[in-house]
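Narrative summary of target 7.
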Amino acid sequence: ASMADIQWNTARTKNILVIKMRHIGDTVLVTPLLHTLKQAMPRTRLHLLINQQTAAIVKGHPHIHSLIVFDYDRAKRDLPYFFKFLLNIRRLGCDIVMDLTRNDRSALFTFVSGAAVRIGYQGRSFFLQKAYTHCLPYRFDSRHTVDHNLEMAVALGLPITDIHPYLTVSDVNRQRIRHVLLENGSRPGLPIVIMHPGARRWYKSWPLERFSRTADVLMTRYPVQVVLSGGPEDRQACQRIASGMTQPVIDLCDKVPLELLPALMGESILFLGNDAAPIHVATAVNTPVIALFGPTRWEDWQPRRDHDKTLGIAFPCRPCGHSRPDCPLGDGYCMSEITEEMVCQAIEERFEAIGLKKTSNCSVRH
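Modeled conformation, tokenized:
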């Protein structure tokens, strides 16, 4: 398998399959690659193979001709489903497959496709070596995830047109989310700031009482309403933030289905959250993000639009990933080094940039 540029006539490419079987944020970060492929080959049909639990986030995406959704739990107990799934991949008649997942299952799907060009990353397993016609070096932890994904397009000699994730919001979904907001006490015409306290590990989260105090400060200083967002697993965190506040907050935790998350982000003037999928969803609909990072290499994951800002603390033990359920430093962990002053200043700079005036000059209370 060569690592040189792939000699292939892209003008004759009818179907490309992109495989990314990971989490929601990973799926959103594939959209710059789809955009690049679509710009270079507008007549080519793009198919995206993803896990079932992430499908709703890219439903109706303008660049995707078909979504191929894999139900892992069903495949484990239903062999006919699995074989039919393989057959359907074969029937796509793909010219090129790009496997961004790099595991044995995705390698099998790549191989079964029968595509003339099958691009993957180098790996140690037998499957990862045999499934591909071209292997790219795996440099996942040394560059931004989007840039790593885009190396597939670079290998084909295609010009990179955009490095930012991109999701669209339909008029129907925009109306649906406005209805949800109104039902939960939102005041029309008052700008919305979204706070998302969730993360896949507790030590990737900013302390909850700081979200409470920051939300209070914002609503006292500016004409804004704060909305809390999250999934079922974030319910307790959002309740604690709301109960720690003096100002009224709109708690939409577990009330917004995944397919409406881009619409919710699109309704807001600012998103504040930890290193988790929603920071990518927000920047994908062009909503300014303040992203809070500690344990992860933000250089690989941060939103990068001009109006996005990353606040991160680089402890020497970074990155520590998801390999452990707890942080050995206890409550002295890296996220607690991000102060409320730092976050409030970043928010105020953003508000100044859009011309949002203060209503009062009260200071941060402790």
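The chain has a mean pLDDT of 93.
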